[in-house]
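Final report, closing paragraph on structural work. Over the funding period we assembled a curated collection of sequence-structure pairs, and we close with a single example.
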Amino acid sequence: MALTVLRLLGFHTKNEYSIKSLRDSLNSMTMTHIEKQIYIFNKDTISNELEQCFKLDFNKKYFSSTEIKTAANSIYKSITALQNK
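Its predicted structure, as stored:
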């Protein structure tokens, strides 16, 4: 399943990045818990590209747990739609 998701991400980014680069970028993407339901998103260049692909905005400094869940659902729906094509 993970390899399928990585390949879909590769397709979604027009294969600009290798599977290894995508995997490493996803592994490095973290949320740091600041206080109750408040997080900071740590990202890199490829995560900026993924934001554009999935029409997400992680440029805010702080995120609530609700915003994180909404973003995760959006990514899940996009990947599911790609798999069904």
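The mean pLDDT is 79. The helical segments are 2-12, 19-28, 45-53, 65-83. We thank the funder for supporting this effort.
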